[in-house]
Amino acid sequence: MVVESHQGWMPFLDRMSLAWVEMVLSESLFGDDTLYDACELPDALVPRLHARYARVELPDHAMWASEEGSPVRWYAAPGRLLRRDGLQDHCWVHARGCVVGDLEVIRADLPGSWVC
Question: What mean pLDDT value characterizes the chain?
Fold first, then answer.
């Protein structure tokens, strides 16, 4: 459950160390446009995500900017990093590969309307 504070901020992780890990993952995800892509993930592809990518051991947490993108969950495989924002009906996956070929594998694993 996301609770807004009186200043408009939403707490999203209960420990500073987890917040730092999440920040480093986010910065690495969005760092290079040629190795990044995003896709609205249909519900039917969620089992494929779970089958092909391991869940990163960070707790579910609120999207810092909006409750709509909550919860945030991280997944990984060798050379590939994914962030799933939200649950059913409006779920997005943000993806990064170490090389272009890794990004192509992600797109093949989760076929959809990729942005880039």
Answer: 84
